[in-house]
Write a structure and sequence with these properties.
heterodimer, A: 214 residues, alpha+beta, Glutaredoxin, four-stranded mixed sheet, 6 helices, 10% strand, elongated, B: 410 residues, alpha/beta, eight-stranded mixed sheet, 13 helices, 53% helix, 13% strand
Chain lengths: 214, 410
Amino acid sequence: MVDRKKVILRRYLVALVLTILIFLIGVMLGGGIANIKIGKLAKLEREMKTRIMDLELQFLLAEEQPCSSELPGLAEELYQIGGKLNYMERQKGMDDPGVLELKKYYSLLQIRHWLFLKMVKERCKKDLHLILYFYSNEPKKCDRCGDQGIILSYLRKKYPNVRVYSFDVGLDSGAIKTLMKNFNIEVVPTVVVDGKVLHGFQKKEELERLLQGS
Amino acid sequence: MIWNFETILLCIVCFFGLYSSLFFLFLILDNKERLDDPKPKRFPSVTTIVPAYNEERTIAKTLRSLLKLDYPRNKLKIFVVDDGSTDRTYEIAKRFENANRGLVKVFKKQNGGKASALNYGIKRTKSELIVSLDADSFVSRDALKRMVGYFDDPTVMAVTPALKVYKPKGFWRRIQAMEYLLGVFLRKAFALLGSIHVTPGPFSAYRRKFFERYGYYDEGNLTEDIEVALRIQAKGYDIENSIKAEVFTVAPNRFLPLLRQRLRWYTGFIVNLLRHRSLFKQRNNLGLFVLPTSLISVGLVLVTAGFSCYILAKSIAHLFRSIKLLGFLDAIKMLKLNLNPFYFGNEFIIVTASCFVLGFLIIYSAKLFSRERSKIKYSYLLYVLIYYYLFGFWWFWTLINKLFGRQIKW
């Protein structure tokens, strides 16, 4: 006859110790994977910097016919980095120092790309529309930023000659601050279409009219 | 890592899932020698009672499987209690009685529910053991022989078999087949802990003297099988399990009948647990671990499934927002599935994956120890993807019904 009902503490403890072990190792490995992703993103950004610089220099160095018929590239790659950054921000939190650092760097890359395209546009008379988008990730500060983001991603997908650069106004970056000062940005969302500042939420139709009208 | 509701919930669910899986796996592997059924010292007399209400379609097959049982004929009796059927159940059963005089006996009574039919049969036999068998279930040849050995231990009042789904084809039955297989594993684990708290309708065996001493099946009860199991536990007796005594039952193959079945089971579980709540005070495996664990897991599944629905609702709201902003066609065009591995998984991915692997190991060992022949790979995948939400939904529906006082009928 066996006493089946009797609590044998050892059984419960062995499973508990093993659970804690697997759990800790698992969470540590999982965190490691997240860190690998952050590292990958940092590498992507560094590569991006070189590529943008390369593009700029190619343009500046070419003495004859710097204006090719194609539109200058790297915009899609920049968006992709932006998308990954957004994802990491949701995963690790907005205050994660690693994510913040990458975001700042990304903003600088965007400004640089924007400046370059502005130059190309002016010198080569390209039919390009450059949109700057100032937003905040904190829903309390900006309840329509999400909507504005949806509309802008739609526009850049629909019109191949539209480039959108988005900046988090909460980022502690001198370059962004200067940019905001230049355009008198006081509210979020603010959209700047080819230098024209539009304060507050902008509807899809209004933006499309602007893009097609000019 | 961000500590919000989502990550904390995931943390708790993963920890709980890991712990219970590891505990039960170790328990089974540690007691492998107890997985084999004891050789019976003698063959006690057995009456199998088949309560039947409008079962003309399956009763013949049920009786044929009983007639094939490998058990001394002078020790076996098969009672069919026709609970006021309006179809041909009685006629068909009578044919079996005529062909097997002395072995099969058919009774007809006014409709009064399954428990009353079982009691009707119990009161008309002097056999040492009573085995109930629903008229939609079939037994394997050696099932009874495997089970009776456990009764050599005088503290054992009931023995349960390994209950499986009959012909698990189709979506709903495949999912249930996995659920039942997991049940096969858990029931054995519970038996090792002296903590079985359900003796399922199909082919559970009881000592007749338990009914005489502590009362018969509760006739008003939604789940008389849960009630009697909890009562056996409350009286301090044991319930054993044979993991190799296979019994097959016809499972619902559509959503609504399945929902109705679960509503009855889960409501019955709550009602009977409340009735026998003194079990929580027992300082043994059942009171301290098994019952609390089952309640906690129901709670966790409810919260997690609810939370997933909230996330789903949020994405749907986002889609509607896009439609409002962009128009229907453009919003649909913007939808795309991102398959880049960068966007896959979070900090808990390894822990979650270990839970799935352990779950598979549990089902696999259930298959191994219970001699299950069917393949489980794809069914397990289906089970993992769907079952959690189904289980959550069934419990949610049960609680809603309970809260708003709706009557659940048999």
